[in-house]
Design goal:
The chain is an alpha+beta fold. A five-stranded mixed sheet has the order 18-22-21-20-19, with no helix packed on it. Strands 60-66-65-62-63 form a five-stranded mixed sheet, with no helix packed on it. Strands 68-70-71-73-72 form a five-stranded mixed sheet. It is elongated.
Length: about 1350
Amino acid sequence: MRALSIVRYIKIIIVFLLSYQWIYAEQFKFIHYEVENGLSSNTVRSIIQDSRGFMWFGTENGLNRFDGYHVKVFKNIIGDSTSIGNNYIYSLLEDSKKIFWIGTDEGVYIYNPELEQFRYFAIQTDNGTKIKSNITAIAEAPNGNIWFATLSQGVFCFNKQTQQLKQYESISDKSNSLISNTILYLHIDNQGSIWVASQQNKGTINRYNPENDQFITYQIAKMNGESCDLRIYAIEDGDEDNLWIGTWNHGICQLNKKTLKIESFLVPGTPNGISHVHYITEYQPGILLVGSDDGLAYFDTKTKKAEVMTATELKNSSLSNKFIYPIYKDREGGVWVGTYHGGVNYAAPMKGMINGYTHSDYSNSVGGNIISCFCEDPSGNIWIGSDDGGLSYFNTQNKKFTNYQPDPNRNSLSYHNIHALFLDNENLWIGTYSGNLNILNTRTGKFSQYFADSTDKIPSDMSSVYSIYKDKQNNIWVGTMQSILRYDRPNDGFNKVKETGTTTSCILQDSDDNIWFATLGKGLFCFNPKTEKWEQYTLNPDDKNTLSTNQINSLCLDDKQQLWVGTDNGICRFDKTIGNFVRVPLNISQAAVTGVVFNLGYLWISTINGLISYCLETGKQRIFFKSDGLQSDQYGVNAVLLASSGLLYLGTTNGFCELDTRTITLNTYIPPVVITNLQVFNKDVKIEEKGILPQSTTSIKEIELSYKYNVFSIEYVSLSYSVPAKNQYKYKLEGFDKDWNFVGNQRKATYTNLPAGKYKFHVMGSNNDGVWNEEATTVDIIIHPPFWRSHLAYFIYIISVIGLVCYIIYAMKLRTEKRHKARMLQLSVEKEKELHDAKINFFTLIAHEIRTPVSLIIGPLEKIMETSSTLPTTIQSALNIIDRNSQRLLSLVNQLLDFRKAEQGAFVINFSEQNMYELLQNLYDRFKPMIEQKGIAFSFDMPDKGIMAIVDPEAITKVISNLLTNATKYASGKITMTCGIHNRAVIIKVSDDGRGISELEQNNIFLPFYQIAQSHKPGTGLGLSLAKLLVDAHHGMIEVESKAEQGTTFTVTIPLEQPNVAPAKSKKDIVTDYTVPEEEPYTEDATSQLVVSSGRPTLLIVEDNTDMRSFLHDSFKETYNILLAENGQEGLEQLKKQPVDLIISDVMMPVMDGFAFAKEVKENVSYSHIPLVLLTAKTDNISKVTGIKSGADAYIEKPFSTQVLRAQIENLLESRKKLRKKFSEMPFVPLDSVAVNKADEQFLSKMNEIIEKNISNVDFSIDVLAEQLCISRSGLFAKIKTLANVTPNELIQIVRLKKAAALLSENKYRINEICYMVGFNNPSYFAKCFQKQFGIKPGEFVNGKE
C-alpha cells in the first residue's frame, strides 16, 4: 500500500511539473481537427493553403480540403481514372501558375480545381524514367522549374517551359552527385539556391550548381572545426548568410552558408531540448516554430531561448499530440500544426494578451471554476471569490495562487460560496452565501466573521452578503438578499437602511454623491445622502425611457460620469436631462448583461453569451467568444474588475480571464468568399460533364437549372479560419432580391419557385472582426422555363394570337364575303336560270323552226332514194350521208324538246303496269345489231322475267336508250344490261368496259349540256340530264360507278309502285319516237395505203368522224392522192410510211387531238415542212390561238365550204412552189428561204453549213450529208423533195452553184478557179450547169455584175 501511495505521489509530482511548464510555455491556444471532425486520418504529413484560400492537409489516408467548417476528402476510387492514384500524401505545392502538385507514396499527381479531378504526372526523362517513388518534398525555383525529392530515385527537375523532366542520382564514383538517392528534404532558399538533405549524409549536404547542372557535396563542421554526423530532416531560411536545419539527434542548427559551420540549439538533454526535428518554419521575424517528437518549440533566434509546447490532458487548448510534423502559417496569421496521431491543430492569430486560468486538482490554480467577484490589493495582486472554491489570492507577478478553503478544524473561511469582496485597509471583507460576512486580516491571515442575528447590531439577513461598497464618506454599504445595510464603525455593527425584499447585486456612488443600489427584481434604488431621500427606478412597459427590466446585475461610471446599468435585458444609460434611463441596443442574440466596466473610451460588457466591446464615441460593437481565446462565453454576475495595471479580469463559469484591452487588435485580413456547394431539393449536386454542374462550384461562373428544380440552395463560406463561427455573410440574388440579405453566420441561401429568367447571385463575407470582402463572389443562374414559357412558346403564342386576330378578321371578312357571295350566287343563279331559260327557249324555238326544214329535207330525200338505183354510185353515197345526218339532226331536235318538257314539268308521265322484261327485251333487240356491228359484245340478263312495275314505258325507254347510246360510244368490247328486284324496287344496270369517268366528272355528268372532257364524242350533253329528270319523275334515282380504265356502270332504281298513282292498263307494243342511232357506213381501213397517182400531191386527212372523213376523201380524190387516219396517232404512223404534201386534220379527236398532232408534226424535223390545215367546230379565239401556236398553217371553222378549203390547199401548195422556184433560179437567194417555219429554217441552215464545209469535196455524197444531219437517207430525200422539189444531189449542186455565184460576184478569182473551189472537175460542165440553173453563163454573170 505504501509503495502504491509513493507511485501515486510521484505521478502527481510529474503532472505538476508538466503543468508548471505549460503555465509559462503556452503561446498558442489550439483547436483540434481530427477524424471525428471529418479528417480522413489523424496522421498529417503536409499542409498548404492554396491561392483561393482553402487549407489542404495531406494524410496517410487521402487528401483533405478544409474551408473552416467542413472537410472534403479526396481518395483513390478504384476504376475512376480522375481520382487521386494513391492515398498516402507526403508533400503539397501550388506553384506560381496555380498548378497544384501532390506528392504521394507512388509518384506525383496534378489537381484540377475546376473539375476537382486528378491526373498522374506521367512525363518521363530522356531515358524513359518516371517518378514513381515516395515524394518527400516539392519546391518551385525562381525560374519556375519544379523540383521533386524522392525516397529512392534521387531528385527530379521539371522544366515547365520545355516540358522536360531530368533526374539527378547518386553516383558512387563521382563526387559531384547526390550523396544518396534517399532524399529526406529539399529546400530552395531566399537566394534561389537548392539544398538537398540525404538520409545517409554523414555530416554532408548537397547544393545545386546551375553552372554545371550538378549537385555539389559539402562537409558540415562544428564551430570548432570538428566534423559532425548529422541526419537532416528539415531546412528553413535564416538571414542571408544562414540556414536553420532540423536534425534527428542534434536539435536545430544554424548553418553558415559560406563557412558551412553549424551552431546547435535545443540539443536533446539540455533545457527545452528536442529530438527528431521534422519541420521548421518562420512564424514571424526572429521566431521559429520547430516541430519534433517532443512537441512544438517556440524559438527566439535572437535570444536563443525557447518554449516547448506539448500535449497535456490538463488543457483542452494544448496540442492534441506531441509528435509534430508539418507547420504552416496561413495568410491570416493562423498557425496550422500537423501531428502524427492527433490530426491538425490550429491556433488563431493572437489578438493580444489574453490569459485564461481554471481550477486544476493537479497544479497550482485558482480555487474554483465559478468565479463570482474580484478585489485588488495595493500591490496589484488580485483577490478572487468563487461559488465553488472559496477565496484565492493571485500573484500577478509569478502567476501563483494561494487558496483559502473552509476548514472546521482551524481558523478559516466560513463557507466556500463567495459573492462579494472589499478591502478596507488590511481587512478583506468577504460576503458569502449563507456563510455570514467574513473578515480576513491580510497581515495576520486570521479570519473573523459577523454572525447573523447574533446581536441586535447584526441583522438576521447578514448570513448572505452579495455586495459591499465604500462611499466617498467612508461609509461601508452592505447588500444582502433582503435589505441594504450600512456599517456602524464606532459600534462595529450594521444598521438596516432600506428593506428591498430582494438581493442587492451591486452598489455604486456617482459624481453627485448619489448612491445607486442594483437589485435582482426590484430595479434600482437611488439614495441621496444629503437629503436622505430614496428614489426607485423600475420598468414601465408603456414608457421606453425606463429600465428595460427590473433585473439589475451591474453598475458602471464612464469618463463623463454617466451611469451605465447592466440588466438581464441589455444595457441602459441614465439621462440626467429626463431623469430616467435610455436603452442602448446590443448586437447579440442573448443580451443578458452580467457586468460592465469602462476603460479607455470603451465599455467592456460581459454577458451570458460572450464579451462585448462598445465604443462610446462611435457606438461600434465587437463581440468576443471563447473561440477568440477567452476562457468561456458565460460570465458571472458583476464578476468584473479593471485593475490598476490596466488589465481586465472577467469571472466565468470556467475560471477567469486576464486580458490587456490595450493590446486587443483587429483582424484586418480580408477573406476570400467561395461558393462551396449547390443543392437541389436538399441534395448535393455532383460534378458531371453533362449535368447541372459541369465544373466545381468554386470555379463555375454560370449555373443552368431547369424549371423543375424549383428548390435549390447555394452554400458559401468566408475563408477566414480565426473564428469561423463569427464570420458574417450577406447575399443578394440580382433579379429577385431588392436588397442585400444580412444572414449573420448562416452559410446557405435557399430559393424556391423562382420564375424563369437570368439571375446573378452575389455573396459577401467578413472575418471574425467584421472586416468585409467588398468584392462580391458572383455566379450567374439561369432558370430555364418550361416549354410553354420559353421564347419559342411565347413566339408561338404571339403568332397564335396574331393568327387568331387575323383569323377573326378573316372570318368576319369571309362571313361578309360569304354573305356577299351568297347574294351574288343567288343573283348569279337567278341570272343563270334566266340565261338557261333563255338558252333553252332559244334552242327550243330553233328546234321547232328546224323540224320543218328537216322534214322538208327528209320527205323529198325519201322519194329520191326510192328511185336512186338508176343514179351513179357516188350520188347514191352522198344521198345516204344526207339521210343519216338528217335523221340524226331530227333525233337531236326531239331530245332537246323532250328535255325542255321534262324540265318544265310539261312532259306527261303516263304510269301503267308494265312487264319490265318485255320492255327491256325490246330495247335489247333494237340496239343489238348496231352494237355488234361495231365489234362490241352486248348481253342482257334478267333472271326474273315476271317483274311488273308501274312506270311510264316511253320515259323508261328514253332513259335506257340514252344509257345504251353512251355505252356504245365508250365501250371497248363489252356492254351488259341487267335487271333485278331489291327492296321493292327495280334495279337496272348498264355497264361498259370503256375508259371510265373521273370522280370530278361523275359529279357533273347529270348537268345539262355537260360533256366529258377529252371525250371527242358527238352529242349535246342533254342525254343524261334528261334521263335523270325522267328517273326523278318516277321517284327513283340514277347513279354512276366508275374507275379509270375499268369501265362504267349506270344504275337506275325505280320503285315497283308509284305513290298516289292508279296504274293504267298495260299497253302492248309501245312505240316511242326515240330513234336508235344508225351505224356509220363501212369504209376502207383508215390505215390502208391508197394507190398513189404519180404527179399528184398527196393529202393526209385525219378525221375521227366517218362521214366527214368519207366526204373529204370523195371531195379531193380526183385531184390528190389521199391518205386517211382516224386520230393524230394514226396520222403520225401514216407520215412515217410515205411522203405527204399537205395535212388536213380535225381538232377534237380521241387518242391524240388535232392540237397535239400539229405540235408533234411541226417539232419533228422530218415532217415540219408539211403544210397543215386544222378543221374544227371550236370557233372561240382561244382555240384559234392554240391552233396557230401549235404550228397550223391554216385554221378553218366548221361548217366549211369545200371550195374555200380547196382554195386554201391550192394556195399553200402554190406558195411552196414559188419559194422553191425562187430559190432554184435566183443565185443569191439562200437555202433557208424555202423554209416555212423555224424548225425547217434551222434544218436547212445546218444542211447548208455542212454542204459549204464540203463544197470543194468532189466525193461529198448524200450518205455523208444524211449522217451528219442525223436523218435516214430516205427521210432526207423525202424532206428535201418536199421543201425544195429537188433531189438531195440536185440540192447539193444548187448550193455549189450559188456559192460559185457569190465568189464570182466578189471578182477575186477566175472562173476556172471557182469551178474547182465549188467541187466541179470540168470547167465546161460547170459553165453548162451554171447557165442551166440561173439562165446565164458564168462570164456573162461576171460582166453583168461589173
